Automatic annotation (TrEMBL):
Organism: Aedes albopictus
Domain NIPSNAP: 62-159, 175-272
InterPro entries: Dimeric_a/b-barrel, NIPSNAP, NipSnap_domain
Family assignment from sequence similarity: Belongs to the NipSnap family.
Protein name: NIPSNAP domain-containing protein
Pfam families: NIPSNAP (PF07978)
């Protein structure tokens, strides 16, 4: 079958009435799931609860900063951010902590990611912003940091409830962040599949954190994995593909994705997770 023929078949299927997209996968004559059913997004039933309430604990908020640095300013930028971390850490009345700080080794170069965790929901986010905006040293560092950057982006995230509990790592590791932009309305479907899929990715303790966006770019998902090195990453991922059931989880999540990319991360000198 040619690629053009395949596209025509998928297009014709999507033009069928909505009843064709049911929670029951299309069955082939022998009773097994057809290959075409795995190209489709299964129907999501209406719910009176928000997706975030069903998928996560909303009292813990994660803040992901993505900074694109001018190539000639990486050193001064790192010094600047380290001082900012020290100021935030000194505020004992705030329940905010830096979880990870990384520079991109493969992917979007001259980029740093910083992951913070708030305990106390968005009330603590608001309180923290007020306290820091009233600190002249912190404000000065923030203004200075702007001269080192080409652009920056901020997202507030929630952790998937089915993901293993986040634990800081020791020794020397590399991290991979795989970021997905999903089709609107498919977050529950994603969660249903990954609640099963994550069981295939815990043999080597590689699952570090899994998030979905609340504020910022919406319908974004970030999975962060931890490996000893690139060879370990290769072997771990190949091992997952040899596990019965992993391929099925992937087949059902691929149609939910509009865009995806991965970056290899190296912890900074001041990153709590190593």
């Amino acid at each position: 079958m040619t690629f053009v023929s395949l596209r025509l078949m998928v297009k014709a299927f999507h033009q069928q009435p909505v009843r064709a997209l049911s929670t029951t996968a299309t069955l082939a004559r022998d009773g097994s799931e057809s290959w075409l059913s795995k190209l489709l997004v299964r129907k999501i039933e209406p719910t009176k609860e928000s997706h975030s309430r069903m998928l996560s604990d909303k009292e813990i908020i994660y803040e992901l900063h993505t900074h694109n640095i001018r190539p000639d300013s990486v050193g001064p930028y790192m010094d600047n951010y380290k001082k900012s971390v020290e100021i935030v850490s000194s505020k004992k009345n705030l329940t905010i902590e830096l979880i990870g700080s990384w520079s991109v080794e493969v992917g979007d170069l001259d980029q740093c990611l910083h992951l913070w965790r708030y305990t106390g929901g968005f009330e603590m986010v608001d309180q923290t912003k007020k306290v820091l905006h009233d600190d002249p040293d912190y404000v000065k560092l923030t203004q200075e940091r702007g001269t080192f950057l080409r652009s920056r982006h901020l997202q507030y995230l929630l952790a998937f409830s089915y993901w293993p509990q986040l634990a800081l790592r020791q020794d020397k590791n590399i991290y991979e962040i795989r970021s997905y932009r999903l089709k609107p309305g498919t977050m529950i479907e994603w969660g249903n599949n990954w609640a099963r899929a994550i069981n295939y990715r815990q043999n080597n303790d590689e699952a570090f954190a899994g998030f979905f966006s609340q504020i910022g770019r919406l319908y974004n998902v970030h999975h962060i994995w931890c490996y000893k090195d690139l060879l370990s990453r290769k072997e771990t991922r190949e091992s997952a593909w040899r596990s019965p059931g992993w391929d099925e989880c992937v087949a059902y999540t691929v149609p939910l994705i509009r865009e995806m990319h991965c970056r290899i991360l190296i912890p900074t000198e001041f990153s709590p997770t190593k």
